[in-house]
Amino acid sequence: MNRSTLLLPIIVMAIAAVMSALFIVDEREKALVLQFGQIKSVHEDPGLYFKIPLIQDVVRYDDRILGRDIQPLEITPLDDRRLVVDAFARYRISDLQQFRRATGVGGVAFAESRIDTILNAQIREVLGSVTSSEILSADRAELATRIRTAAATEANSLGVQIIDVRLKRTDLPEQNLDATFARMRAEREREAADEVARGNEAAQRVRALADRTKVELVSDSQRQADIVRGEADAKRNAIFAAAYGADPEFFDFYRSLAAYRAALLGGNSTMVMAPDSEFFDYLKSAERP
Predict the structure, then answer these.
(1) What is the number of other CB atoms lying within 10 angstroms of the CB of residue 146?
(2) pTM of structure
């Protein structure tokens, strides 16, 4: 057996030992070097690092911002109108040593379970202190900020930074939808009936005002017409009186002609009179005014 044959296994073992002592941390992760479960070093910057083979282990954690969808949660606001809230959170591991001490071998799975518990508690507390109208309004963003601030304080003990919390959906429970829709329909119908009643009342007021104005206008017009008619009659009588006073004989003649014109129109009823009736005095008299 030659010398090179003996050196080859040694070289292979040496290379394997060197390779097992090297590890790479990329820009997307952080790494802990553990020795018998104890933290020996923390590597948060990307690069090539060394560890003691067989004695030390490397545990890697994601250094990116992670997302966590919270299971839909039923909450009861101040007005006792139950809502189902669907939320999500964004977080990252901020303190790697604290995170390892808080989660142990459970790692991210244990941390996310604790984050769920923290967020559920804060969602119930914050949304339970306001009405459903506030939750469903534009103020929802401010409520989400309150939830994030409170949750971030508790999550610090895990070595986790809560970056953002958002409320994706806030709906009524399925069993309450029909009752809620019926109540909303009844409220809208009541409001419509109120509007119709107010409209009818306003219409009646307008009609009453119009009728009163009509009566006043007609009465005033009638009064003015009576005044004008009376004045005209007075002028006519004055003219007749003046004419009669100027020539009574001519006035009698004129009035007789007017009577003849009215009496002798075609289609009038038949009149039977004596030939010597006073009605025909001016027709048989030889004298004329």
Answers:
(1) 16
(2) 0.55
